[in-house]
Amino acid sequence: MNELMKTEETRMTVRKAERTLTLFYEFLAKKKLLVHVDESVFKKKILYGTSNQKYTVSAFQGVIMPRKKQGHIAHDLPEQYILPLIELAVKVANPIALGVYMHCFGGIRQGELVNVRRSDVTSIGFFGEFGLVVKLQQTNMRNES
Prior knowledge:
Blueprint: H1 2-6, H2 11-30, E1 44-46, E2 54-56, H3 82-92, H4 94-105, H5 110-113, E3 121-123, E4 132-134, H6 141-144
Antiparallel strand pairs: 1-2, 3-4
């Protein structure tokens, strides 16, 4: 199983291999095919949230689990940098500043944002004092080329 760790498999793959090998060795022990392993080595526990389902606890010690994968770094932007980023966008790249703002606070994904045109944005109130309405629609790429 630690060989799976070297090939950069996921945690789920390693857990499934551990589970399969545990059940296989338990089966061999029940059939008395393992000379040095008794059936009592395999402990049973009640599955969490159920009253009668049991599972076999892994008999393997020292299994190395891969680390959980990190998400995209861009999603982990600390809050103290968001407003300076928008201010910088206003100063340096004014045409995209609204897009940066909508990406940070409007919940609009990057793929949707790149297709927004000025005609898709309608302000509510004088200069948008009560908000904006952004029309998002699915475009057919074959028709636009």
